[in-house]
Specification:
two-stranded antiparallel sheet; 2 strands; 66% helix; disordered N terminus
């Protein structure tokens, strides 16, 4: 790049390579809606699971309406010890966490901005959430051998929230990253949707593979 002098001002001249650099996507506009909608969907699912859990505690013979077959069986999941990993029903965590997401989404839509430390706090919380739902996925598929559809919706919401919150933190910190990390962050931001879809499809593939003994004979 060299400098061309003109009568008016000095204009940097950039060599034309025939290709314009791709603009990095910004997630600032979608984050409020992602937090609000994701939080609402997660809160509804957590509330339903909580109600079903209470009904099951009242009556051990109660059969939840989401008991559809030997695989899709909310009752089996709710009755397991993994359903109270910390000594209380897991949905209580969801009721609190998703309420926070909704609140932050509303605050952002109202035009307020969040401090950087709050985004990092949300990132830490979503990291805990995404690790927890992967543990629940493993327990549900390979130990309980049953699935809860409401839980799976929570998995998707938690993974999506974690993913885009992480990308937004990278966006905010782009100028503070080293060259290598900037290149890595740019790749992740360019392929954000591809990576998320692959992530969710990988989970779906593992579920289908494990329960193929049931679904295979019903599909063919």
């Amino acid at each position: 790049m060299h400098v061309v002098k003109t009568p008016f001002k000095i204009v940097p001249s950039v060599k034309n390579t025939g290709k314009e650099p791709r603009k990095l996507p910004s997630f600032s506009r979608i984050m409020p809606w992602l937090l609000l909608i994701g939080g609402f969907v997660g809160l509804v699912c957590a509330f339903i699971i909580t109600v079903e859990k209470i009904d099951l505690l009242k009556n051990p013979q109660y059969v939840p309406p989401c008991n559809l077959n030997p695989v899709i069986s909310c009752g089996s999941v709710m009755a397991s010890k993994q359903a109270a990993a910390f000594g209380f029903p897991n949905p209580i965590i969801g009721l609190v966490a998703f309420s926070i997401l909704i609140t932050l989404g509303v605050v952002l839509l109202a035009g307020s901005t969040l401090k950087r430390w709050l985004w990092w706090g949300l990132g830490a919380g979503s990291l805990f959430g995404v690790c927890f739902v992967h543990w629940l996925f493993f327990q549900s598929v390979y130990r309980i051998h049953a699935l809860c559809p409401y839980c799976m919706v929570v998995w998707v919401v938690t993974i999506t929230t974690f993913w885009y919150n992480t990308l937004y933190i990278l966006e905010l910190s782009q100028n503070k990253l080293s060259a290598g990390w900037q290149e890595c962050a740019s790749f992740l931001r360019h392929h954000h949707l591809d990576i998320l879809i692959f992530w969710l499809l990988a989970i779906a593939a593992l579920i289908l593979k494990h329960f193929w003994y049931y679904y295979g004979k019903h599909l063919f």
